[in-house]
Write a sequence for this structure.
């Protein structure tokens, strides 16, 4: 489970505020009465524990902190230990237990609900033991019960926010995919209508004009004088009209290719993060709607995988055309991986290309992002 960037910012700013509120009273009191509550050594140890908590909190909530789950959990464990030390040391002011709630706010991003509850129970038990030793059993029971409830609520709040953010991101992805698919469908519908009009012009009007031209040719051999000139004029106009019809039919058929750049632009426009840079080379022509759908579905899967797994800031997606067919190139600046694990999305893309005689390859390395290259042959070769 990933920690959304918006939640991370609020957690860090709120955490720093809580950390400062916890530390300020003890520092002010300790500086005013340095010999009270254990003296300078106890105050120095308390301040060291406070600084350690701040450092580990910063490390656990830094950008992309979830990319190394073990390190993040170690830092959260360090926060728990630091908070308990702050409670156990003599300068304790009583506000330090709020840091345990701050720890609980982080657990939802790294642990299952059951593991987080166990963690909260363990640190609450340690808090109760420390409070019992310092202030008696009645305070231990009351404070441990109250702060354990706060911690459970904090963990539930984090999970709810993460689930809501994931659902919102998925909705954005689906809407972007829908917009791109709708654009491709609209283009396909327009192209089908152009093809129908071109076919009707060619089959009906073209047929009649050809018949008219043949009849005028016959009439030109049967007439003389002024009538002959009129027939020749009509025959010339008929030839020009037939040429215009053929030109219009040819233009309609040539314009019936899919504008894949417009569909990809629709897809990129609906994704706020990462930034998607689309580059479609001039002259890319896809006449086959099925091939256009394969290219679009491949682009959708690339975007989906980047959004969900890459933790990238940028995705570069390019489409070119060569003698081999349509070539798709994609790369991101995400975290990468040690090996490519072909899930359902990658396997589906590979199948789409290989069924049409194409090629598909993915490269990655830790810290170097993902790069993809796919080639889709087109019927009849390059246009």
């Amino acid at each position: 489970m990933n920690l959304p960037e918006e939640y991370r910012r609020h957690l860090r700013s709120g955490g720093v505020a809580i950390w400062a509120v916890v530390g300020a009273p003890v520092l002010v009191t300790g500086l005013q009465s340095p010999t009270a509550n254990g003296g300078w050594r106890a105050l120095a140890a308390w301040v060291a524990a406070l600084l350690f908590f701040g450092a580990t909190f910063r490390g656990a909530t830094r950008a992309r902190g979830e990319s190394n789950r073990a390190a993040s959990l170690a830092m959260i464990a360090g926060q728990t230990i630091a908070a308990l030390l702050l409670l156990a040391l003599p300068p304790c002011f009583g506000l330090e237990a709020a840091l345990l709630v701050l720890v609980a706010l982080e657990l939802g991003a790294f642990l299952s609900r059951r593991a987080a509850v166990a963690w909260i129970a363990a640190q609450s038990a340690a808090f109760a033991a420390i409070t019992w030793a310092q202030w008696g059993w009645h305070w231990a029971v009351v404070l441990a019960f109250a702060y354990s409830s706060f911690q459970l609520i904090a963990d539930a709040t984090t999970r709810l926010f993460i689930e809501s953010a994931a659902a919102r991101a998925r909705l954005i992805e689906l809407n972007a995919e829908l917009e791109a698919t709708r654009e491709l469908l609209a283009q396909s519908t327009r192209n089908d209508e152009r093809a129908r009009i071109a076919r009707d012009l060619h089959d009906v009007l073209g047929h009649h004009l050809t018949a008219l031209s043949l009849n005028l040719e016959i009439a030109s051999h049967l007439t003389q004088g002024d009538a002959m000139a009129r027939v020749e004029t009509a025959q010339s106009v008929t030839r020009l009209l037939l040429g215009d019809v053929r030109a219009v039919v040819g233009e309609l058929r040539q314009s019936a290719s899919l504008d894949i750049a417009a569909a990809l632009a629709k897809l990129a426009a609906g994704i706020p993060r990462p930034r998607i840079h689309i580059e479609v080379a001039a002259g890319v022509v896809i006449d086959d709607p099925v091939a256009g759908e394969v290219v679009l579905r491949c682009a959708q899967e690339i975007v989906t995988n980047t959004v969900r797994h890459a933790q990238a800031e940028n995705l570069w997606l390019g489409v070119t055309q060569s003698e081999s067919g349509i070539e798709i190139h994609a790369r991101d600046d995400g975290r990468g991986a040690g090996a490519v694990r072909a899930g359902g999305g990658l396997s589906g893309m590979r199948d789409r290309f290989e069924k049409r005689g194409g090629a598909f390859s993915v490269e990655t390395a830790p810290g170097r992002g993902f790069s993809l290259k796919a080639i889709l042959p087109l019927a009849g070769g390059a246009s």
In short: The chain is about 70% helix and 10% strand. The CA atoms of residues 13 and 84 lie 22 Å apart.
